[in-house]
Known about the structure:
Elements: E1 9-14, H1 17-25, E2 34-37, E3 45-48, H2 50-53, H3 63-69, E4 74-76, H4 80-97, E5 101-105, E6 108-112, H5 117-120, H6 123-138, E7 142-147, H7 150-157, E8 165-167, H8 173-177, H9 190-198, H10 204-209, H11 212-219, H12 223-230, E9 246-257, H13 260-281, E10 285-294, E11 299-310, H14 313-328, E12 336-344, H15 357-377, H16 385-391
Parallel strand pairs: 2-4, 7-8
Antiparallel strand pairs: 1-6, 1-7, 2-3, 5-6, 9-12, 10-11, 10-12
Helix pairs in contact: 4-6, 4-13, 4-15, 11-12, 13-14, 13-16
Amino acid sequence: MSADGDRAILHVDMDAFYASVEQRDHPELRGKPLIVGGVSGRGVVAAASYEVRRFGVRSAMPIRRALALCPEAVCVRPRMARYAEVSAQVFSVFHEFTPLVEGLSLDEAYLDVTGSRTLKGDALHIARDVKRRVLEITSLTASVGVASNKLVAKIASDLHKPDGLTVVPKERIHEILDPLPVNRLPGLGRKLGDRVFASGLSTLGALRRAEDEKLRSLFGRHWQSWRDRASGLDDREVEPDHDEKSVSNECTFSEDLRDVGLMKTELSALADKVAARLRAKDLKASCIGIKVRLHDFTTLTRQCTLITPSFESRVISGRALALFEAWLTTQPRPRIRLLGVSSSDFDGKVQTDLFAEPTRQQNEKLDATLDAIRGKFGGTAVSRASILKRRR
């Protein structure tokens, strides 16, 4: 990436973020196989420490299956307020190096440091400094991928975790990407990935060089975009946080959800995470949406508009559940692969409803109290009754 015309993109991914925060805050958990997620058998893994990953435990896996793989694992409930607090520290480091920071979640972001190289050094030097500063401020490690575009940077950040730093120069993209297994390609789901692998295209190089007709049979009309991805081509710009259009959370389940009660539980938990992130960013949303992906990869979205923008957990969860329940009337026996909750439209004018004002103030006080308690004493100290009831 020596040419002046080349972009310099970093993808920074905190290592096992939720689990690492818990192990940092609670020394007795260090070195132990740790699962952050529901403490009952019906929850899902939100994060897994590297100690428990050795047993095959992964994010989005049902807790019951995770404990079968590692019976000695310690389970703790998520503390979203605490993670949002630490995330704010991490993102403050990112902004020390560039204003072009695109947050993907609490623990992951793209940084365009193309214009920072004159003052901050080359991209590799900046990446090392980002890792060092994050460690100094949070005592946590991050893995960084450095490349000329977002796609390759994201792939690179995952190659040498934890605490990794991988540079993929533009002229070596094929050399580095070609030997990688196809499941390294972002956006390629497990089932589609299995089909691609079974077809004989086991590496990104094989996918890049495959015949057109073979790719059409696998990917349909989008076949060329998948060849481009396998080739490391990506012209997307880094979209800074100050232009943020939405805050969302979604979860892909390793096994399709069939139980409606569990679906609602996971949707409520996702809504609670979205609300916590909104409060951490001091954003109030005017639009709430849900995303549902079925077992056959059919994907749908539903959304509604709030009269008064909000970051209240009760409001966001209530609207998300209402959208979901309305959709359920047309789907009596759904099998769900993915659920998501989104929030957007942060620029709408607030319309004050005088009759709803006491309720709003009460909800915001409750949210602030829960955030404070979770941040100080941990996620097991308090949880929302609506989620607890469904997870029993």
